[in-house]
């Protein structure tokens, strides 16, 4: 298993989001929404005893008593964090759904605005680290919706709660020690050290150990501040991470391609790479025209994507194929390119995106609001389906179907 910046903490990504939001990553892959209220601490004698023991272990690892005391002065046990950890969804979205969310109209529009707003900073980061600015911006977009959802959970409380709970105690204790090292270095105050429920922090959601290894002080103020409203240090830290993971400047992450009739599908799959000239000789073309790159080609469920070595580097940031394609595609959209050209096939229920959008519109018109008609079947749409099914005496499944669509027409 490849241990990336976040995979050790979050498991397999279910979909962007977020996160690109929500599953294996906390990247908020849905649209922007107001932050949830911060979880509230509750008394817990077991946690208190665990913290007493941990303080001694932290001191033995070089953490000063002043840092330890300050870190835990306002900390507490957060039961909501345990609930979130135990109830991570196993639902895996299709690539079509993932890209519909990762490169939604809202995210693309905000991405282009932020890319323009921070253009000089992103260009300077690209010059220093050799990672294209639109790629860094895309990571920012998937991880925190361009800084609008950086997380408001106290990191020391969250990590100590998870370490005490014990399911992944050793890992979270290592993250807690790393968080104390960050505090001891003076990069951030205890009160300002907030993040996701699992301790991922800042604009591009670094866990503490990755922060210690990769975060940089791009602004030169003496602190590696990934938490502030100014995203400069966070964006530069992301570029530094990708650079040290093997990013090759000038090489695209990948591209959508078209295959000729009769193409040997046995050539598809990651790890079955060929040079650009070899693919060209086999009749492969870049969708929309342009030069090919060397790499592997995968079937995305309708569209086909050629993936380069830089795609593998994005996987070092988040080891999930859909996430890495999402970053690449969003980065292209930020530069002004269009949506995926090929059509995705019907889903497991036999429904196309147009079918799912029509279902959402009809449910909303019938009084069962799906809160949008993007064709992505999420929690709101499933709740609307369930409510409709209950209202007409059908078995309540919450699942979309062509039969349900026909009934609503």
Which spans have pLDDT < 50 for at least 5 consecutive residues? 7-29
What share of residues are in beta strands?
A: under 5%
**Termini distance?**
48 Å
Kindly report the average pLDDT value: 91
What is the total domain count? 3
H/E element order: HHHHHHHHEHHEHHEHEEEHHHHH
Helices, by number, come to 18
Radius of gyration: 23 Å
> Strand order, biggest sheet?
4-3-6-5
- Count of β-strands: 6
Oligomeric status of the shown chains? single chain
Structural class: mainly alpha
Report the biggest beta sheet as strand number plus sense, adding barrel if it closes.
4 strands, antiparallel
The helicity comes to 40-55%
The shape is globular
Describe this structure in words.
The longest helix has 17 residues, at 169-185. This protein has helices spanning 7-10, 45-60, 65-73, 79-86, 95-102, 105-117, 119-129, 133-144, 155-165, 169-185, 208-214, 232-244, 276-281, 309-317, 321-334, 353-365, 379-391, 402-408; strands spanning 153-154, 194-195, 254-258, 285-286, 296-299, 304-307. The protein is mostly helical. The chain has a four-stranded antiparallel β-sheet. Strands 1-2 form a two-stranded antiparallel ribbon. The protein folds into three domains: 1-250 and 313-340, no CATH class; 254-307, no CATH class; 353-408, no CATH class. Strand 5 and strand 6 form a beta hairpin.
Short characterization:
The chain has 409 residues and is mainly α.
Key structural traits:
409 residues; mainly alpha; 3 domains; two-stranded antiparallel sheet
List the helices and strands and how they pair.
Elements: H1 7-10, H2 45-60, H3 65-73, H4 79-86, H5 95-102, H6 105-117, H7 119-129, H8 133-144, E1 153-154, H9 155-165, H10 169-185, E2 194-195, H11 208-214, H12 232-244, E3 254-258, H13 276-281, E4 285-286, E5 296-299, E6 304-307, H14 309-317, H15 321-334, H16 353-365, H17 379-391, H18 402-408
